[in-house]
Amino acid sequence: MAVLVLDKRKKPLMPCSEKRARLLLERGRARVHRMVPFTIRLVDRLQEDSSLQPVRLKIDPGSKTTGMALVREKETVDATTGEILRTFTVLMLLELKHRGHAIRDALTQRRAFRRRRRGNVRYRPARFDNRTKPKGWLPPSLQHRVDTVLAWVDRLMRWAPVTALSQELVRFDTQALQNPEISGAEYQQGTLAGYEVREYLLEKWNRTCAYCGAKNTPLEIDHIHPRSKGGSNRVSNLTIACRDCNQAKGNMPLEQFLAKAPERVRKILAQAKALLKDAAAVNSTRWALFQRLKATGLDVEVASGGRTKWNRHQMSIPKAHCLDAACVGCVDAIQNWQQPVLGIKATGRGSYQRTRLTKHGFPRGYLTRSKSVFGFQTGDLVKAIVTTGKKTGTYLGRVAIRASGSFNLQTGNGLVQGIHHHFCALIQRADGYGYLWTKIALDRGDAGLGQATPAALSLPGMNAGVSRAN
């Protein structure tokens, strides 16, 4: 994993290896500029454009998580064919987790509280007719996705000599997600146009019994929620089952019939009523993000999701948000992709609201005006060395302050409560994000193409000798 490097005027230089960064710090040639992501600042060098190599930031936008990859780009010419080959060396992998769902829930709660408070003052005129939305307006939960991605693009451009950007300009076809064979005029027709209900269900459920998985057997139409108990004839309430399962289920609810197989119940309900909200979120924000990336003044390369998947399979790289980002665009080879991933979770910077509310939305208590207690603020990255008591040990994580001075620390191994502020030392100020290093654990059961799963790691550089932060 590369370490970000700045010159003495805080201009970005080419990232270096961990070993070189350690030597520069030990010899006094560099200072710690930032802990996460780990960044050093040289004290005896200025930026020289001729010494910089092309660095590209690749982005794979997602509804809940956006993958990013900082790569070094190199072009070579094949001596036999004369074709230009693009090789990318991964410098840093990042996964940014959005908090759009939290914003949506907070706005829903605020709207409910306001309706309740205004219920007794009905003489006030409605205001919704006076409000207009500007061109290109996005709901706050979707605008947040665009803003957080752009915020990290701007940060990485200040910490690394980024010369170009790549974005997966994906568009989800919501009708094709429901019917992969759709084409032409079928897009203008309804779900069941040209199909009998039975044939539609056979295709939807892959000609397999939904309850036991039997194939190559006569299948019958069954109501997931029985008609005798209020179920409808909507296609979303219909499935197919073999005769034995259909008769055994009778008019029992699905949960009762498959009480011993809760996982199958979950899959049936998910397939029957598959939600497309994540696809809609990506479709709504993709062009807004593209326009904002173009406004940076850098060259922006766009590619489809199909090209990303093809690149990933060609190079036997597992599925992960950050690795998908590395595979965006025209790629011939990717090197050094097996490295730790920086997980970034958008946590916000707290709330302007300084009151606690009842369930009806009325104030019941007041918070302190200051968000800082004993020099610490919720979200600060701190290191606590506890020397006495039951919690003796060293802890590193995100702090949640209390007015009493007894803090909580969210570490990579879980929550630690009741740490006195005397034991805490500031590592990095809160910036609205939580950080956790993970490594990609590969599932080798599928020839190296399995799902990549994260495993927590400790934050690098967090030792007693390196504890400064700006």
The gist of it:
Helix content is 25%, strand content 30%. The protein is α+β, with helices and mostly antiparallel strands and 470 residues long.
Give your account of this protein's structure.
The structure is a single chain. With 470 residues, this protein is α+β, with helices and mostly antiparallel strands. 25% of the residues lie in helices and 30% in strands. The chain has eleven helices and 24 strands. The strands form six sheets. Strands 5, 6, 7, 8, 11, 12, 13, 23 and 24 form a nine-stranded mixed beta sheet that branches. It has a five-stranded antiparallel beta sheet with strand order 21-20-19-18-22, with no helix packed on it. Strands 2-1-4-3 form a four-stranded mixed beta sheet, with helices on both faces. Helix 3 crosses helix 9. The longest helix has 20 residues. The protein is globular. The C terminus is likely disordered.
- Outline the biggest β-sheet: 9 strands, mixed
Give the termini distance in whole angstroms: 22 Å
Class by alpha and beta content: alpha+beta
Shape, please? Answer: globular
Total number of helical segments? 11
Give the C-alpha Rg: 27 Å
Low-confidence stretches: 443-450, 458-470
SSE layout:
Layout: E1 3-6, E2 12-16, H1 18-26, E3 30-34, E4 39-42, E5 55-60, E6 65-77, E7 84-97, H2 100-117, H3 140-159, E8 162-168, H4 174-178, H5 197-204, E9 219-223, E10 238-242, H6 243-249, H7 254-257, H8 262-272, H9 277-294, E11 299-303, H10 305-314, H11 321-326, E12 333-335, E13 341-346, E14 355-357, E15 363-366, E16 372-373, E17 376-377, E18 381-386, E19 393-400, E20 406-411, E21 414-420, E22 424-428, E23 433-441, E24 453-457
Parallel strand pairs: 1-4, 5-8, 7-12, 7-13, 8-11
Antiparallel strand pairs: 1-2, 3-4, 5-6, 6-7, 9-10, 13-23, 14-15, 16-17, 18-19, 18-22, 19-20, 20-21, 23-24
